Amino acid sequence: MRRSSLLMLAAAIALGLLAVFLARFVLTPDPRQVAASSGVVTVPAVVAAEPIAFGEKLETQKLKVVRWPAEGLPQGSFQRIPDAMAGDAVALRAIAANELVLSSALSGKENRLSASKLLGPDMRAVAVPIGETAGVAGFIVPGDRVDVYVTRDPGESGLPYSDQLIQGARVLAVGQDNNVGKEKPEVVRTATIEVSPQQAQKIALAQTVGTLSLSLRNLIDNTRIPLQTVQLYDLNDGTVTRILPRPRPDTTPVAVVAGPPAPRPPARMEIYRAGRKDETGEAVQ
């Protein structure tokens, strides 16, 4: 009885090993063989073996080579790990595990994060001074889209007003941080935005004559809304209001009307006899 149980156990183990072998090597074909049989040509491509954080230096253990369809391989990819690590490259943005490593996501030499790679053709990077209010309380992060406004107070020559300078500018960095994977808001002093050369001129002039502020907009909102200049009389919600002027002091000269002359005091006459004053003198009317 015991011998038969052992034989049955051994047979079960053998069948299990056979099933694993068939599933591993027979029923599951090699992806390269499937690609070859389907006519898909694959080439080696470098991907991230594990998540790579923004600003992190690329290392051998963080990369691996996989087979990738040749027709779907984007420009700027690498086929060898040393090529991707050339120049001590660091990540300009977060790279997920198994994501293709592209040259556009890597910096230049000497571990230096080059923001110029983030600029589009014929575009410029301009730093805009902001604070907690002008920077939407720190909720602006790299990759967002913003509108730029200028507010001026011309003094005695006119009333304060506000104008819209730019719509839909892309934020490249906040402070000195250009991590597009930034999650936590932070109040900083400057925001670097991507603008055209003419828009850069406008911002340079606006900073000398007024105060700049930003408003955050939806990433997929590409609308352009022409806005008129807003002045003090426009500061309402659209209801009809009555503006009361400030009371001014009356500076009209007051005419002085002459009244009757004041009565003169009665004249008195003093009498002297023998060099002595006579005290019995009476007033002369």
Question: Any overview of this molecule?
Answer:
The chain has 285 residues and is α+β, with helices and mostly antiparallel strands. Among the domains are: 34-113, Antifreeze-like/N-acetylneuraminic acid synthase C-terminal domain (Type Iii Antifreeze Protein Isoform Hplc 12, Alpha-Beta Complex), CATH 3.90.1210; 120-234, no CATH class. The chain contains four helices and twelve strands; from the N terminus they run ααββαββββαββββββ. Strands 3, 4, 5, 6, 7 and 8 form a six-stranded antiparallel sheet that branches. Strand 4 (145-152) and strand 5 (161-174) form a beta hairpin. The longest helix is centred in the first third of the chain and has 26 residues, at 2-27. The radius of gyration is 44 Å and the shape is rod-shaped. Mean pLDDT is 77; it is low at 281-285.
Give the overall shape, derived from the CA principal axes: rod-shaped
Rg, Cα atoms, Å:
44 Å
- Into which percent range does the helicity of residues fall? 10-25%
SSE pattern, N- to C-terminal: HHEEHEEEEHEEEEEE
> Strand tally, please?
12
For the largest beta-sheet, the strand count, sense and barrel status come to: 6 strands, antiparallel
Counting DSSP H or I runs of 4 or more residues, the number of helices is 4
- Low-pLDDT parts are 281-285
Assembly state: single chain
Mean pLDDT over the full residue set: 77
